[in-house]
């Protein structure tokens, strides 16, 4: 392989080396603090993927506010990563910070409801259109519990995922197509099961394959993002969601829509904007403004079926729930987020600036005649170093240009902007300004220019 994304490997290497050097030179304090890794942590970091950022060492944060991160060397970054969605509404949105301060005086966890829950049940139902909800702590857990319900009520063993999906570290979703064959996702640590026995996998946008996979009527649930966001960004074809709903209904299979990323679309997510009609709905990450929390909701019909199942089943542990789930800090932060942060006005701002970002990136790509493209879902924008649009996870996998992307990421950091690691995702928050968007566009144009030269 001599090139990635239309750029020669030698040029990519040269950029990466120069940018790594500049990153280091600007951060003596961070480098000294980080050393060869932070003592006491396996791999030198408290979470292993902090080592996967393309910078020579992780950015050592002093504080973050709105859409800005300040590192301990005093360098300010315009933050378009926003905790990979956890801070999609900005770092410490003021209403959420106030709610956290208030709740800090009232107890942080007690396994009991409080008056915020009286409001929250109504807010969730009105906002997302499903009538019955539960609260968990991560989107991973919400997906796990929702899938358990799906299996319980249908009595079916299997689930179906789209190739290239990510729904959190839900073991049973970790199946991929490799050379057209379903296999355990490469790289899983300690997985001892053949996950393909209970998980079917087809390509996104492939309606005939979906129909065939559901025909055996042994699939309890299809779990899907409205847009495949974890494989670059793959938009649904016109009619895909209608077909997905029609075929799942026909097969007696439930449909779980995971809105954790596509909540970038609007206050009610992609589901409300495009009138999807899921049986199960999951949202995590930003739903409490950065406080760990997730929600999962059931349609009226599914809730009724699950109640009947519950009544009939043997008494005992359901396999659902974690101790810190549905705690009052989550209630307070989630209420503030839904009432005061996830507003139409904030989303208007996010979408307007995301369009400006999209246009700016597209113009830079065209100006430098690079074979790249840009995709957007509401406030979420991604540049992809390959021709587009992509139609499925297989194409997205082939579109990845890891060395090129890493070099670009470090070059952007050196120009004052942070985007999500591992892929090229940028989020616009209510706190993001037009100036910040323009800085990103300028930085991207400069980097693209140096690669195309
Ligand atoms: N669903 C989707 C669509 C995600 O992208 C992710 C995480 N990237 C998750 C669920 C899991 O979220 P968490 O890691 O917070 O459990």
UniProtKB/TrEMBL annotation:
> Which Pfam families does the UniProt entry name for this protein?
Aminotran_3
Entry's transmembrane regions: none
Show the SUPFAM superfamilies listed in the entry. PLP-dependent transferases (SSF53383)
GO MF annotation, one: transaminase activity
Under the heading InterPro entries, the entry gives: Aminotrans_3, PyrdxlP-dep_Trfase, PyrdxlP-dep_Trfase_major, PyrdxlP-dep_Trfase_small
Source domain of life: Bacteria
Protein's UniProt keywords contain Transferase: yes
Alphabetically list the UniProt keywords. Aminotransferase, Pyridoxal phosphate, Transferase
Q: Does the keyword Transferase apply?
A: yes
Name any cofactors this protein relies on.
pyridoxal 5'-phosphate
Please give the family membership noted in the entry.
Belongs to the class-III pyridoxal-phosphate-dependent aminotransferase family.
Q: What is this protein called?
A: Aspartate aminotransferase family protein
Q: What organism is the protein native to?
A: Mesorhizobium marinum
């Amino acid at each position: 392989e001599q090139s990635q994304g239309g750029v020669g490997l030698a040029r990519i290497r040269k950029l990466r080396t120069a940018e790594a050097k500049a990153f280091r030179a600007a951060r003596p304090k961070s480098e000294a603090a980080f050393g060869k890794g932070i003592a006491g942590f396996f791999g030198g970091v408290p979470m292993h993927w902090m080592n996967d950022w393309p910078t020579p060492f992780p950015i050592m944060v002093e504080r973050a506010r709105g859409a800005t991160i300040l590192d301990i060397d005093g360098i300010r970054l315009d933050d378009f990563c926003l905790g990979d969605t956890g801070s999609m509404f900005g770092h410490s949105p003021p209403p959420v910070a106030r709610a956290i301060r208030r709740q800090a005086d009232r107890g942080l966890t007690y396994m009991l409801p409080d008056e915020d829950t009286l409001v929250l049940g109504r807010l969730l139902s009105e906002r997302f259109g499903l009538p019955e909800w539960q609260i968990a702590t991560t989107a991973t857990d919400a997906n796990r519990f929702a899938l358990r319900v799906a299996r319980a009520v249908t009595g079916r063993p299997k689930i179906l995922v789209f190739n290239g999906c990510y729904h959190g570290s839900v073991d049973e979703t970790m199946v991929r197509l490799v050379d057209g064959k379903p296999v355990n996702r490469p790289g899983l640590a300690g997985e001892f099961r053949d996950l393909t026995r209970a998980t079917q996998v087809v390509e996104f946008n492939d309606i005939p394959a979906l129909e065939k996979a559901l025909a055996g009527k042994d699939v309890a649930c299809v779990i899907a993002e409205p847009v495949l966001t974890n494989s670059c960004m793959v938009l649904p074809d016109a009619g895909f969601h209608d077909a997905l709903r029609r075929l799942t209904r026909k097969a007696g299979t439930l449909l779980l829509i995971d809105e954790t990323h596509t909540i970038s679309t609007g206050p009610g997510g992609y589901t409300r904007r495009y009138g999807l009609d899921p049986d199960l709905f999951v949202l995590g990450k930003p739903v409490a403004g950065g406080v760990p929390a997730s929600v999962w909701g059931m349609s009226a019909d599914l809730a009724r079926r699950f109640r009947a199942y519950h009544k009939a089943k043997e008494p005992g542990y359901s396999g659902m729930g974690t101790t810190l789930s549905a705690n009052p800090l989550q209630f307070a932060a989630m209420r503030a987020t839904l009432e005061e942060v996830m507003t139409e006005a904030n989303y208007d701002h996010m979408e307007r600036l995301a369009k400006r970002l999209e246009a700016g990136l597209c113009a830079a790509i065209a100006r430098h005649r690079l074979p790249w493209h840009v995709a957007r879902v509401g406030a979420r924008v991604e540049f992809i170093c390959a021709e587009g649009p992509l139609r499925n996870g297989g194409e997205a996998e082939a579109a990845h240009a890891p060395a090129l992307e890493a070099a670009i990421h470090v070059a952007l950091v050196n120009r004052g902007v942070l985007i999500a690691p591992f892929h090229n995702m940028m989020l616009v928050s209510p706190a993001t300004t037009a100036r910040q968007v323009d800085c990103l566009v300028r930085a991207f144009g400069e980097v693209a220019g140096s690669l195309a030269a």
